[in-house]
Design a protein that fits this description.
six-stranded antiparallel beta sheet, 3 domains, Heat Shock Protein 90, alpha+beta, Jelly Rolls
């Protein structure tokens, strides 16, 4: 039995202008329910079979995201929700994607979907109004989903950046400790040189050879060449009376020394003096290598910070700004570097020559590169290949992002640019979606096309060089 009145039903925003006979029809075909504050009204997976008309109180809906309920929306009797929720006419919802709870005491009517067709014949205008509320609900859900996914995407990007920064930062920490040890050892080894009266000319000769090695930079050997060189040096050191030679052999081989150069360094020194020379030389070369590693690690951090600043465009405005698209793509690749390494993906860059700077909304366009490249990484298996190819002329720049993954199934290819359509699991995307990518590109008066087959998926983005604001 329905425990409500015609006036209460007329107070529902969506039904306020209905004639009394239509209100009475709704009352006659509905079921009445009451819920106390905090009670669960629907849970994830329940069949969606009726329209809910809220007479009193409000309903909070929580989306089920990987088993975790996340707040999305409050339904109440206002101009936004209209006092209606649940399954609305022409909705394609089959089951509830989350759970809903009563806020305060909630009184409601349930109108089963089997009556929707009769209701449409009775009052077509009401159906259109309900479709409007459903559209507004979808827009609100989409906006909330976008916000949640952007936060998730930001978290993923932050985690990736932290991962990228951790490696060089840890290297600097290790290098600092080793360099401290090497500098302390240098005092002891230098004292040894003085104790054995190593001549000034001998030290100058060593310094000259070391500097020549450093400047020539011709010491890059293959693994096999280095092993042969180490064996050669190990044998020579043994013959010269230096037995603790494994680490020393590796250091000298990596620096590009040959047995002939070691013979030159030895000169007429006796065994004990030569041992002191070799120990001092090994420490010098190792210290130089440590300093080089330190430089590379700090440069890596500087590069990452520069890429982050450029990518998020910290000085962004709402105006067009000229940018080098190649640099923007390189920054994106830098920030996603850990994902390439995790899957051992090979990246080929086929960039056009003489690329002109293009006026764009830099922060927006960087989201496009991030999304498309991240999608390609997701589609690739281990040891896949990503190709980024650019072509340019006086009118346009075309960026093609090509992967050799499994491809996009033909039955969904025409839907990939639909709002919030995705084939990824929740939380695995970048959060902005191909719909937003498409809108950003249109904002630049450009175009995006996709061709896909197994083994090759290509997204081609065309951006005009001359923009109209």
């Amino acid at each position: 039995m329905v425990s409500t009145t015609m006036q209460e039903l007329k107070n529902v925003t969506a039904l306020c202008d209905l004639p009394e006979e239509h209100l009475k029809w709704i009352l006659d075909h509905s079921e009445y329910f009451e819920y106390e504050d905090g009670a669960m009204i629907r849970k994830t997976g329940d069949a969606a079979e009726e329209m809910i008309i809220i007479l009193e109180g409000s309903v909070s809906f929580y989306m089920d995201v990987k088993g975790r309920l996340i707040y999305y929306h409050d339904f109440t009797n206002d101009d936004i929700s209209g006092g209606v929720t649940g399954l609305l006419p022409y909705s394609r919802m089959k089951v509830y994607p989350g759970s809903s709870f009563a806020v305060g005491k909630v009184r409601m009517l349930h109108l089963h979907k089997k009556y929707f067709q009769e209701l449409e014949h009775l009052n077509p205008d009401l159906i259109q109004k309900l479709i409007g509320y459903m559209t507004e609900r979808a827009r609100s859900f989409a906006t909330t989903q976008m916000q949640h996914e952007k936060v998730n995407a930001l978290g993923q990007l932050s985690a990736g950046i932290a991962h990228e920064l951790n490696n060089p930062a840890s290297a600097i920490n290790r290098i600092s400790s080793e360099l401290t040890r090497r500098l302390k050892l240098n005092y002891e080894l230098t004292e040894g040189l003085l104790r054995y009266k190593i001549s000034e000319d001998n030290i100058k000769n060593i310094r000259s050879i070391v500097e020549t090695k450093h400047l020539s930079n011709n010491n890059k050997l293959s693994a096999l060449q280095r092993m042969n060189r180490e064996d050669e040096i190990t044998g020579w050191l043994s013959n010269a009376g230096y037995s603790e030679n494994q680490l020393v052999s590796e250091t000298l081989a990596e620096a590009g020394f040959s047995s002939e150069e070691l013979e030159n360094i030895k000169g007429g020194a006796d065994k004990d003096s030569f041992i002191r020379i070799i120990q001092w030389l090994e420490n010098l070369l190792s210290s130089q290598k440590i300093l080089k590693d330190l430089e590379e690690a700090s440069t890596r951090i500087s590069t990452l910070v520069g890429a982050i600043k450029s990518h998020v465009h910290m000085d962004q405005t709402n105006e067009l700004q000229s940018t080098n698209i190649h640099n923007d793509i390189e920054n994106t690749l830098t920030l996603l570097g850990h994902k390439f390494r995790d899957k051992n993906i090979n990246v080929r860059k086929l960039f056009c020559d003489n690329l002109k700077e293009v006026p764009v909304y830099v922060g927006e366009l960087n989201q496009v590169w991030t999304n498309l490249i991240d999608n390609a990484i997701y589609a690739l298996g281990r040891e896949g290949e990503l190709i980024i190819e650019t072509t340019c002329d006086d009118k346009n720049v075309v960026v093609k992002i090509i992967d050799n993954g499994a491809g996009i199934p033909p039955d969904i290819l025409n839907r990939i640019f639909d709002p919030f359509f995705t084939t990824k699991k929740v939380g695995e995307g970048t959060g902005i979606g191909l719909d937003l990518v498409n809108r950003i590109i249109k904002h630049h008066n450009g175009s995006i096309k996709v061709n896909s087959r197994p083994g090759k998926t290509e997204f081609a983005v065309c951006i005009p060089i001359i923009q109209k604001q």
